[in-house]
Amino acid sequence: MCQECDETGQHLFVMCKVAQNIWDLCERWVGLANVRHESITIHFQSFDLACRRKSASITWKGMWVAIVTELWNHRNKVVFNRGVVNAKEIFTLAQLKGWCWLKHKFKRVTFSYSDWHFSPLQCLDTLD
Predict the structure, then answer these.
(1) Predicted TM-score of the model (pTM)
(2) Which end of the chain has fewer CB atoms within 10 angstroms, the N or the C?
(3) What would the pLDDT profile of 48-62 be if each residue is shown by its tens digit?
């Protein structure tokens, strides 16, 4: 996607400058810094909210999956449909998919997408 390195999973999802930009957006959105690892497995494992309840931390890992999924979808759009790389679009779609997944998984979720967009940690704290 960045046309700078061989496209491995590690590069695409963790090391690529596009991926790095998206992880930066995510950290700014939630207001927490995360140690980034080159290993996809360790990167996923470190995507944790240890200071929150277990349900919030596990759900936060779902956001990691949403971001990786959107990176892959966007990569396919760029490669196969001559799309243009847009980190903000990737992240916004991941936020939306994360919220949709939450609404489906937790039937009692009462927060709106707007709440999720502006206060993700507060929303995660309401999960049980």
Answers:
(1) 0.90
(2) C
(3) 887 788 888 888 999
